[in-house]
Structures are given as structure tokens and as C-alpha cells.
Amino acid sequence: MLKIKSNWGRSRDILSHFHSIFGNLFLYCSLSGSFEVSSASAPFSDSLGMGLQFRVGEGFSIGPSSSIVIWLGFLNMCSVKNDGDTERLPKEQPDSSPNDEGSWSGSPTAGEGVVLKKGPWTSAEDAILIDFVKKHGEGNWNSVQRNTGLRRCGKSCRLRWANHLRPELKKGALTQEEEEFIIQMHAKVGNKWARMAALLPGRTDNEIKNFWNTRIKRLQRAGLPLYPPSSICSGASNENQLIQIDSEFCNGDIENSGVLHEAMNEMQEFGFDPCKTTIGQVSYVPLSDIHSTFLLSQGLEWPYTRSLLNQGVNDIKRNIESETCLPGYHGSLGSFVSTFKELTSGHSESMYGNLGLGYSYDADPDMKNLLSCSIPDSHALSHGNFSASRHSAGTVKLELPSLQCPDTNYSNWITCSDAPPHYIHVQSPPGNVSFMPDCASPRSNGLLEALVQESQTINCGKKQPSEKSSCSSAITLSDMMESTTVNFCTAEWEETSDQRSPFSQSVDEHAQITSNSLEEIPPTATSDTKMVVEQDSTISTPDNQSSHCPGFLRPDALLGSNWNLRDSRRTKENSDSFLALQGEDLSSAVVSLDSCPWNSMPSIYQLPEH
DNA sequence: AATTCCTTCAACCGCAGGCGC
DNA sequence: TGCGCCTGCGGTTGAAGGAAT
């Protein structure tokens, strides 16, 4: 960008000089923003709005006494309009302007064979785009190239406008409040950058994404948790609301859940004030993550510390012993959450800890199982950071931690109510989920590696110095990939005499959690851990076995858990009845956690075809 | 001062959904 | 229903600049 301040005569000389240097370029004079014209003669007086363009060396005139301050950008690739006449000039060949910013080679071509430019935008291009948007509004981006000659594809124009040229954009670094908001939002919605950006006026999804990626790299390196406990806590501070929402969900009236809609609307319309608002004040807490969020809100550490979790288990066991079922568990997840909160309330202090990356392989099967049960749909969930926001066929995409499935179809995760005896009803999200080796591919963004690394870090931190040496080599990614298949819930309605709908009975009638069952969770070792994903199927539980899990499991909650579920069977009629109940193609699973032959689950590589 | 490493961020890419024909 | 176009989203890349050596 050159600044030329001159009277007209000198300006013309200068422009001619540029012309001699750059050839038959187009010089673009933006009259917006930094461009200023102190005076101009008649021919240009009506062009003082936007996008004054002229061609070097051609007959333009301006009053000889005019003094112009011109910010010049060079636009050597497109034809420009001149006094309303669109002039299509012979194409400037890229190789004729090797010094031009951006790239030409391999660029896509527009309809007229115009080679589109790639690479950084020039201010001249910006001005053209701004001009176009001012005249035509946003949208119709592909017409930018057609109407202005700007040799940028529509997507590029849209991106440039959205990320850089929009007048409402905030410049500068994110504020502390905005960063906190992003962290909390990420804990809730995962990598939904656009959604976050919509709630952060003046910020772009790209900006937020870059912030997050930078942040996780930094924290990864430092071995710090991704989610500060305070962030998570505030993210679910309104427990009552969560439970209320949850209860309504559990009543099955999802679509008409006023609370849900209210919460959703509130989230979308609450007019987030980055200076004042924290996400904790927002009641947007999708059901699918209520439990995990709640648990995390208790500062529940993940990996859960053995002491805490043992304590929690013991508490639950005591309650189980006295009541057989979880007290207060009346078919509502929220109720269970309340129960769990009560059970763990005395230990919340010890719960506060590492909420971030860190799935501990320091197996404590009891607790992991327990807590896996408690977190039905969590991105951060099991390991604090795994997430699977997209369930593409056959694979789980390991995206960075969030506590929530962003595209949660809330109806997909209704659990707990009206399940038959000894069953835990689980609905898995659409699409099969598996844990495939490609998770460790470079495309996986290194998250798995990060996870492993984090776990090592944490484990090392917990161990005595003498143990650290072994710690570092305790788990490697390859180890994990080779030895770990994670069994997801595969379930089927047991062929019981009761052929009623699985939903015809309430959980509080049937959910039975016994201390015995808790103790029956097999000891685990990483090498034995398996992940199996099946969909639209159920796992049966022998009647003489009680489920360990109080009703809300979901597959990815088991990621990294040490559960190995017994072989599964499918009962079509039960599955069909479930689907009929749901009225949509949802996966369902009834999971029972009996004393299954833990190693009999098929690995994900042996998934039966559905 | 030169080089390497690291961080940041703008921009590209592929994909998916919506829409009109 | 299929196709093409447009738009939006999320993942990824690579250039630029700063920090470290």
C-alpha cells in the first residue's frame, strides 16, 4: 500500500510511473476507510462512495488543482468497471506478475475461464469486495467475481468478508471473558465454532477455532487440563434447571419440552454479554450432557481419583444395601444426579482436580464403571476429553474434548424411564461408533496422542518418583491402539416373559444396583479393555445379575472405561418395538452389566454387519 | 547476525445441507 | 428424484513473524 499525497499533476506522474513499472495494471483506489479525497473534480465527484477504479494511463481526469490522498492497492488481475461500463480486459497472465501476492497456479477457474486467485487478499481486493457487499448485500458470493471481476471464488469472498471485512467485527485479541466463554461453550457444544461465534458478537468462527487450537496445543504441552474446574462448574451451575430439563426429557415429551425450548431459546437469544455473562448463567444444557456436566460441576476429576471414587462407590453401595435401588432415583436422570450429588457431596473438595486431558489408566474399575454409567453423553466425558461429536459410519471422530455432543438429538438420549427389570436403556447416537486405528492418524489432530500423553503426565504425577521412569513407557499410543478396543454398549431386550415395551415400566421399579454387582465388575487392565460398538441392539442381562449402571450409559461414555460387555444378542422384535416407540431410526440399547464373559465381546473389527 | 524453532492466524479444502429446477 | 448451485461448517495447511539458540 502506498500513500500518495499530491496534487493531480504529480499524482498522474506517479501513477504513470507505476504504470511503467507494473505494466498494464489496474490501480484501485478505495475511497472507503483510510482512503480520503480532499477534493476532486467533477468526473470523480460521484465516485466518492466506494470503489473508485481507474486504469493507469487511460484518460481519466481530475481537476488540476485537486489534491488527492490515495491509498493505492494494486489489482493486477481483474478488469474493472469504469463509469458503469464493465470492461473485460485481456487476462493478465499470472506469470506476467510473479510478484503479485497470492497464488495462481492450480487455481480453480471461474465460468469464463478466469483463473481465480488464491492466497492473501490485497487491500484492493478487499475494497472491491466491500464495495460489492455495500451495493448488493451479503450473499451471492459467486456473483462477486462475475460482477466485479475480482478473481476470487465465492467461497473465498465469503470467508474474507466474514472473517475480516465485516464492519461489526471486533479487532484485537479475545478478552478474558470471551476466552472463558469459549472454554465453557466448548465444554458444552464441542467444536461448534460457528455456534460459538454466533454467541460472541464480533468474533468469527475462525478466530475462535484458532484460539482453541492454539490453546489446546499450549495446554497439551504443559500437561494442563483443558477445562478449568471453575469453567466446568459454572457451566452447569444451575443444577435445578438441569434437573428440571432432565425430568421433562425423561418424561418422554421431548419435542414439546417447554423447558428445553426455553433453554435453547435462552441460549440463542440471551444476548451474551461477554463482559458480564458467564456460561454458567445460561440454562442451555442439553440433556445429553446434563449428567456429565453435573458431575463435572461437582469438580469431579477425570480421571477420577481412586479415593474419591471409592468413596463414592462405597456411598452408593451403602445406599444400595439399604434401599436396593438408588434412593430418589425415580426414573429421572436428574434424580439420579441428585442422588449422586448427595452421595458425593461430602467429597466434592477432593473431586476438584484435573478436569482436562487425562484419562488415567490407573485402573480403578469400580469407579470408572460407575462413572461411565453416570455420563451418558459427554464429549469430555470419560477421559475428560474424548468426544465424538460426529458419529460417522463406523468411526468415532476423536475431537477435542467437549462435554457434549454438539448435534445432540436430545431424543436420542432419553434414558432411564420405563425400562424393564435389570436393564439399562441406552440409546446411542446415530451412526455406529467405533474406535478405529485411523483415530491415531495424523489427521486425528494428535488428540489421541495428547490423551495418552496427558494420562501419562497425570499418572506420573501421582506416582512416586521411583515409579516415574516406568510411567513414561507404561502406555504408548500404539499400545493403546493395539490393545484397546472399547466396547460400546450393545444391547438387546432380553427375551423376557414380559413382552411389554421396554418403556412400560419405570426404572425405579427395576433399576437394581447391588453392591454385589459393583464388586463384580472385573478387574481391568488396559490390555483387556475393549471397545465394541454396535447399534440398534441390546445386551441382555441374566436375571440373576443386576446391572451396575443406573440407567444412562452411552457408548462414548464407555470409551476408555474398563467395561467389557458380554456377548450381545439382538432381538429384532424388541428392537423394532423400540424403534416404533421412538418413531424414528434411533439406536437403542439396553445394557446390562452382568457378569458377562468380559472377553467375549467382539472387537470392533469384528462388528457384525447391520 | 544467522539459523532454527515455535506460534499465530489467514486462507484453503472437502463435505454436507438447503434450495431451485 | 436427481442434479447443480450456493452456502456454511469444521479441519487443516502454510506463510509470516517472533522467540530462542
UniProtKB/TrEMBL annotation:
Residues 113-165, 166-220 form the HTH myb-type domain. Gene3D superfamilies: Homeodomain-like (1.10.10.60). GO terms for molecular function: DNA binding. It is found in: Nucleus. Keywords: DNA-binding, Nucleus, Repeat, Transcription, Transcription regulation. InterPro entries: Homeodomain-like_sf (IPR009057), Myb_dom (IPR017930), SANT/Myb (IPR001005). SUPFAM superfamilies: Homeodomain-like. Pfam families: Myb_DNA-binding (PF00249). Residues 85-115 are annotated as: Disordered. Residues 85-94 have a biased composition (Basic and acidic residues). PANTHER family: TRANSCRIPTION FACTOR MYB33-RELATED, TRANSCRIPTION FACTOR MYB65. This is Transcription factor GAMYB.
